[in-house]
Write a structure and sequence with these properties.
The chain is α+β, with helices and mostly antiparallel strands and 135 residues long. 41% of the residues lie in helices and 21% in strands. It has 7 helices and 4 strands; from the N terminus they run βααβααβααβα. A 4-stranded antiparallel β-sheet has the order 2-3-1-4, sandwiched between helices. The longest helix is centred in the C-terminal third of the chain and has 11 residues. The two termini are 20 Å apart. The structure holds inosine-5'-diphosphate (IDP) and magnesium ion (MG).
Length: 135
């Protein structure tokens, strides 16, 4: 079934010159980028985006990091897009991420793990409404 997911290349991925590599992987997988923009995330949007983690000890660090530089946001369509993108991202902690995944190939630090992708239909709908209201 065709799904739409929300993907964000985090500030470390953008600063590291990985934008093209990541978009290329998404396209070569057969998924379609239907929305794309580069911007700095406001503190309000960052706190709303990570609201589920607001009680975690790393929440402040997470918001500081995601607002620390430009990100690239995408809306991505395709069959099973949400799960396919999660698999392509790799495990949250890059030390546990398989080679061939974005995190397994390009990251070592859980706090700076290059990419975000929606983890289910509900979060995809919420994140797309938050960041891509124009779609
Ligand atoms: P996900 O990005 O794989 O969906 P989540 O559990 O939703 O992982 O966590 C959101 C983000 O918070 C992660 O991508 C990671 O950057 C950060 N994070 C998660 N757990 C920790 C931690 O234990 N320490 C520091 N940062 C963390
Ligand atoms: Mg998550």
């Amino acid at each position: 079934m065709s799904e739409r997911s929300f993907v964000m290349i985090k500030p470390d991925g953008v600063a590291g010159g990985l934008t093209g590599e990541i978009i290329s992987r998404i396209e070569r997988r057969g998924l379609e980028v239907v929305g794309l923009k580069k911007l700095s995330v406001s503190r309000e949007a960052a706190e709303a985006h990570y609201a589920e983690h607001s009680d975690k000890p790393f929440f402040g660090e997470l918001v500081d990091f995601i607002t620390s530089g430009p990100v690239v946001m995408m809306a991505v369509d395709g069959r099973g897009a949400i799960g396919a993108l999660r698999t392509m991202m790799g495990a949250t902690n890059p030390l546990n991420a398989a080679p061939g995944t974005v995190r397994g190939d390009f990251a070592l630090d859980v706090g700076q793990n290059i990419i975000h992708g929606s983890d289910g239909e509900e979060s995809a709908a919420r994140e797309l409404a938050l960041h891509f209201s124009e779609l």
